[in-house]
Write a structure and sequence with these properties.
Elements (H helix, E strand, L loop, with lengths): L5 H16 L11 E5 L11 E11 L16 E2 L3 E12 L3 H17 L2 E3 H4 L12 E6 L4 H12 L6 E11 L4 E2 L19
Parallel strand pairs: 1-2
Antiparallel strand pairs: 2-4, 3-8, 4-7, 5-6, 6-7
């Protein structure tokens, strides 16, 4: 039952996931920051940490028109909007060794938590996702050419070590209901007449 806030909630949940798994001891006491970025944030980025940059949203092609939810009053919502979110996780540090450590660590955390539960998704704002919902996180492919196009065209900044991910099959519910179809068939009546009857 994800609401339209699901896109923001998913990005914030990735930040929350990384932050909750972070221990400064693992990085010689380095204080890492975790933020959702827009393109302008790359002009004055954080010193050390991980940014989440949503760069593309696609309609999920697996289930293009999932049926809307049946409401308690018997009406049905319009079809859900199934989306895949594509984002970059960028490791920030002034020293290459720390940047590489952060990259390895963030990828391990993402792999160990491949599904974001509703409790984490709803920490940004309550009741965005239903209690039985979750979002799957996976690596995605981004060619070197596309990666540099994102950095040069969208961000306009010098490339930093980044890893592309996607959050799959976020189904956003509609506020609209669809007109009820005809009543269900209760009985079948057949009127067969014989010749000469």
């Amino acid at each position: 039952m994800a609401t339209y806030e699901a896109i923001a909630a998913t990005c914030e949940a990735v930040v929350r996931l990384l932050r909750s798994n972070y221990n400064p001891v693992n990085f010689d006491g380095a204080l890492l920051d975790f933020q959702v970025y827009v393109a302008n944030d790359f002009t004055t980025p954080m010193e050390e940490g991980v940014s989440v940059f949503l760069y593309r949203i696609y309609q999920n092609g697996t289930n293009r028109t999932p049926a809307g939810r049946l409401l308690p009053n018997g009406t049905r919502q319009a079809t859900k909007l199934p989306l895949d979110l594509h984002f970059l996780l960028t490791a920030w540090a002034k020293k290459a060794s720390l940047q590489n450590e952060i990259a390895g660590w963030m990828m391990r955390v993402m792999e160990d938590n491949a599904t974001l539960p509703a409790s984490m998704l709803n920490a940004y704002q309550p009741n965005v996702f239903g209690p039985d919902e979750g979002v799957d996180l996976t690596f995605t492919e981004l060619s070197v050419e596309d990666m540099f196009r994102v950095w040069e065209t969208m961000i306009g900044h010098t490339y930093q070590l980044s890893v592309p991910y996607q959050a799959r099959m976020i189904e956003i519910e509609s506020f609209e209901t669809v007109a009820q179809e005809g009543r269900a068939i209760q009985a079948r009546v057949s009127d067969v007449r014989r010749n000469g009857a």
